[in-house]
Amino acid sequence: GGGCGSGSGDGAGPSSAGGGGGGDIEDLGGGRGGELCSYYEALEAQGSDAALPAAVYTLEELKELGRGKGWCPYFLARHVISFANVVVYNYQYLLDPKISQLVSRSMQRECVVVFDEAHNIDNICIEVMSINFRMPTLEAASANLSRVQREISRLKESDAARLNDEYQRLVHGLANSGALNASDELAANPLLPQDILLQAVPGNLRRADSFVLFLKRLVAHLKKRLQTEEVVQETPLAFLSQLLHEEDIEPKPLKFVAERLRSLLRTLQVTDVSDFNPLLLVGDFATLLATYRQGFCIIIEPYDERSPALPDPLFQFCCNDASIAMKPVFERFQSVVITSGTLSPIDMYPKILGFEPRAVHSFAMSFSRDIILPLVVTRGADQAPLSSKFDLRSEPTTVRNYGKLLLDIAATVPDGVVAFFTSYSYMQQVVREWHALGILKRVLEHKLVFIETTDVLETTMALENFKRACDCGRGAVFLSIARGKVAEGVDFDRHYGRAVLLLGVPFQYTLGRVLRARLEFLRDTCAIDEADFLTFDAIRQAAQCAGRVIRGKTDYGIVVFADKRYNRADKRDKLPGWIRQFITDGSLNLSSDLAMHRARQFLRKMAQPATTAETVSLDFEQLRRSNAYVASAATATAAITSHPLQATGQQLPDQPADQPERFAVEMDEAEAMEIAV
Predict the structure, then answer these.
(1) Which residues, 6+ apart, have CB-to-CB distance to 169 below 8 Å?
(2) Which value, in Å, is the radius of gyration of the alpha carbons in the chain?
(3) Strand pairing of 448-451 and 416-421?
(4) What is the largest CA-CA distance in the chain?
(5) In what order do the strands lie in the sheet containing 476-481?
(6) What digits encode the pLDDT tens for the residues 483-521?
(7) For 557, which DSSP code?
(8) What is the reported pTM?
């Protein structure tokens, strides 16, 4: 096998690529009248011979290849992972235990794992180990159990031996008997590999009927716990104690629920696994609850704080310790690299991920000229302070000055401008007031205005039209959210982003109970102060927004930090070095009118064509004064001179006699290029 880059979207289950929805695929056609997936069967017929020519394959190219050969592209990608040199996929394929055991188990210890854009890796680790559900999920789980009961009754009449065979396997233990195939979607286990139990399933879960009754009691208890009128926050141990007292359910059987449930669905030959997701979610929760005691908490909220009059209970099994999901990766692979352009401050990550780094490097970016203009705007033209602090954000003066700043930028900066708000609710409030003040109408005289919404389709269409407006010369402003999809994954390179406006510091909602629980854990376990973590988290989001406009060394843009708190050293020093290196005393504590004066000077400078000297980092004269370059050039010349062909006086075929000298010069230039880069 050659190099294979397996790109992937968010779908993680085998059904995400169109062919085969899980279950025991080999048996789907037997006794049920089900149809086999022709793409999967064709791939299985090839067996280990289903190889790919050496190349780099994107997800679309794999799908095209699958159509041409009649193979399932998803299972093909999983098959060739064992032979590929490079595999590119989402973090979840390695961090989420339910997925990694299916997709990534063939990777060897010698693999080099690179987490790119890893500034939010701690949030991903917490997300994959947390479970949330509401009352509709539990109602759907009850419906799933009723259907499972009907399927068990049907199977007793038609094929009772199948249920008996499963019972015998359970006596010896699922993992030891191989009851769950490693390639089966139902083999996914929510536990980390080292925590999976290998002993036999407890007796009260072996009979299918008894297991269903066990699950019904568990779901009924969860429904009762959700019917609360007060917020509940407790440890997993306290929840287990109440479960034992009220339902007589001991912790040990709960550890086997996820594994036992998947075995039962497999025995019942369930083909539409996705229909049973609510019940599978409850099973995963039960297993995680009984396995992990430290680093987790349970929070039950009877209503959303934004609409307390509307009952909408939410059950949250929250992971507070990001190191739980990362620990197996560090133990399994010998080389793990965590990198990002906004990994700052870098010393925070070993603390929250729980590891001791072998090497820590922060690289400065070399630019031929000052292509970034950071401006810290602390007040408006009327000298009123600018800030998104809770006590100032809704002040009419603050809203008006933010609008005036956006208007000035739209009138000064050509092409595309991106403005980031701290939250959706604040953006809606400010845009509504801007409309009432007539500010939006004045902005539209200079540029079109597009807005990010919670609807993915609407936001995608808005981005397409934003780029069309920039391409045709009309120019546009895109109003976005600092923690939204646009801030994380959309590049506003070249003329699509000549300026970024950060309207405030994007702190998280500090009164949220899930965040408060995590802050308490970090304070007690990692010795990280709450204020330090909140500032670190907010500044890394701000840096991510700022990086949307600088996507290469030939790009340039203005970054406006519109909040007086950015003028403080404790905030500013947490920005990445490639932003800090351009911050001078003249960039700090500016009013909006003075900032626009600086912006016009910068744009006039950037409009001038770059000279040859500005397009290279080092010229040859500077290189020849470098001891490292002189030594490497001499080594290269000596290597050529001492080559056996030179010693014997032989010449390469079709090469002129002066080729060695000219080759040495070319090697010098290659060395110079390498050092310059």
Answers:
(1) 177, 179, 263
(2) 30
(3) unpaired
(4) 94
(5) 448-451, 476-481, 416-421, 499-503, 557-562, 372-379, 590-591
(6) 888 888 788 999 999 999 999 999 998 888 999 999 999
(7) E
(8) 0.79
